Amino acid sequence: MRLNKFILLSLLLLFMLPGFSQSIKPEEVKKEMKRVADWQIEHFKDCFSGRDKAHHIADWTNGALYVGMQKWAAMADDDAYYNWLKNIGEEQNWTLHKRQYHADDHTIGQMYCELYRKYGDEKMIKATRKQFDFILYHPSQSKLNWRTPFHQDRWNWCDALFMSPPVWAQLYKITKEKKYLDFMLSEYKATTDFLFDKKENLYYRDEGYMGKLDNGTKIFWGRGNGWVFAGLANILKELDPKEKEYKYFLKIYKKMAKKLVEIQTPNGHWAMSLLGQEHYPTPETSGSSFFTFGLAWGINQGILDAETYEPVVRKAWNAMCNCITEDGMLGYVQPIGAAPGKAWPDKSEVYGTGAFLSAGSEVFKLYSK
User: Fold this and answer.
1) Residue 227, helix vs strand vs coil
2) Domain boundaries, the chain
3) What average pLDDT score do residues 343-359 get?
4) CA–CA separation, 185 vs 152, rounded Å?
5) Given CB 3.0 to 4.6 Å as the disulfide criterion, which of 1, 20, 233, 292 pairs with 316?
6) Among 361, 365, 364, which Cα is nearest to 69's?
7) pLDDT in tens, 42-58
């Protein structure tokens, strides 16, 4: 009898360990995604990150939301979410945001390309193609050094690698015109050569963080690297594995994936300063959701070994779901920033929701097999 009690207690303690669970149920994944998506649509016009007005519908913050919302729309049981996204496109007249070269203002183009694929309406991508053709034939001559003139006309901060490159890859896949892939690859390589730390296999947010330490560790921003990792998955899905360009992106992706396993926190999330988790114990759900998305995608594609990476994804997904409030808000999303900072259980952001929905789309596939 004592032995049975001991076994029972041991099992109970095991199930209480952070991130431990039996197989994740696909229907539960879908349920949590719907709760978060519905909450975000209801609160779409709210003010976030301490701002006094809502984000512009074509802002990068919302662009990242649409990337995840589109993935959810493809899973949902009705077209309500697709209709919501189409209404956004119509309101914006299917144009990108205001700055010609700035990667942030290209983000909404990812939604346009996906909606074009579903509906086949040329107007959805016409303006994006025209603007990208202009950039292609009038490339910025700016340096990648931070705060040099017109420096953000190129991808000199790691967030940019989520915002713009996937749109170039989508246009290449849609049009079969290699000029889009060639330009994107050239600029991506320039950014990677500049910001990628080959020893740590992580990206600096921008030049300003190189050589600096935070509590004795190099500063690799969690969400910043989340942007990169999710962007890599979204680029790779547009390319043929036989193409040499695919191999270039895959090499970076695998290096980052291996690193992410090593630095995941015991609670399942990733720290806001990736190498300094003891100094940043607070969960941060936007970067962690992007990592979860990218890792689950890799398993689903047969790129990553399930035995190694599935427990990481499982623990991370459970950690993200533990940060959803009763009414469906994803909490612990770090406000707009460029470096490790703070997050709160009652604070959210639209890009956090987008990251979570992206993660859920691949977690659902993983556990539906």
Assistant:
1) helix
2) 28-368
3) 98
4) 17
5) 292
6) 361
7) 999 999 999 999 999 99
